[in-house]
Inverse folding.
């Protein structure tokens, strides 16, 4: 399959490109810097420029798109730019796909749409029906991006899957980050003590783009379990108190962010279960 990946040089994108190439796909990687790696055609493209997006999609004869190119919540740019660029970039990609007849699109939304940075979750495990409560411009841009995706699904028949990614890190960073979580589990609790190996996020992208029949809409994507050696329900009760309903489906150390829908729809199961007692080498 001919697949175009935006944000191909990013911390998720480079693993997505590598996985697609290894699976035998023909990959065009676009970014504002060159996407390095064997087997990938790299093109400098700014997704804020609709003309560039149209041209590279047409030239690549893409059959599917994985759209990862956006400002993250960690990049220090003004809120107006984070929101405006993220929304405009997503619209440009979706519109070009609609005009060029490219139906399957996977794009990077975020778990931040649930608003756990600003308030405890309403319930756990958090599934895709949980209320959306964006707490900053980045999260708001993802909510609007998902609404834009819904518009193109309804009006143009696109199959757009919005990946609500949580805590994605490259393998080389995960060991140190887990040590910090163990030392201060009360910090950055909006990531629910769960981290996602970038290779698993890339695997989810490949599974979704290859699947024959998929339901458009949001999909949670994260690691399988919390990285601490405590039950998830215990952590939730300690740090969120009675404001969060703990449902019976949250068992053992499973992540408080449910990936059940992704598992049932296209077979996503994390392969790298990082924890304080488990490490994986970089491949």
């Amino acid at each position: 399959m001919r697949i175009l990946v935006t944000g191909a040089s990013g911390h998720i994108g480079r693993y997505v490109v590598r996985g697609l190439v290894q699976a035998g796909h023909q990959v065009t990687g676009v970014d504002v810097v060159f996407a390095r790696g064997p087997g990938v055609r790299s093109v400098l493209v700014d997704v804020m420029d609709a003309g560039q997006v149209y041209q590279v999609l047409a030239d690549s004869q893409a059959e599917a798109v994985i759209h990862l190119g956006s400002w993250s919540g960690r990049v220090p740019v003004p809120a107006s730019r984070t929101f405006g660029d993220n929304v405009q970039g997503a619209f440009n990609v979706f519109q070009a796909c609609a005009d060029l007849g490219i139906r399957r699109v996977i794009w990077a939304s975020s778990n931040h749409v649930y608003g756990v940075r600003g308030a405890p979750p309403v319930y756990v495990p958090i599934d895709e029906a949980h209320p959306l409560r964006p707490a900053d411009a980045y999260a708001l841009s993802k909510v609007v991006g998902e609404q834009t995706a819904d518009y193109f699904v309804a009006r143009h028949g696109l199959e757009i899957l919005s990946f609500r990614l949580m805590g994605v890190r490259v393998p080389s960073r995960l060991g140190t980050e887990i040590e910090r979580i163990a030392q201060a589990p009360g910090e950055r609790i909006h990531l629910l003590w769960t981290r996602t190996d970038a290779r698993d996020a890339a695997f989810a992208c490949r599974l979704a783009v290859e699947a024959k029949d998929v339901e458009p809409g949001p999909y949670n994507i994260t690691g399988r379990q919390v990285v601490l050696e405590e039950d998830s329900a215990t952590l939730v009760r300690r740090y969120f108190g009675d404001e969060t309903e703990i449902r019976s489906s949250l068992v053992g150390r499973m992540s408080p962010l449910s990936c059940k829908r992704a598992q049932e729809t296209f077979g996503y199961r994390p392969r790298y279960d990082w924890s304080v007692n488990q490490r994986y080498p970089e491949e």
Helices lie at 13-22, 50-60, 79-100, 137-156, 171-183, 198-210, 232-240, 260-266.
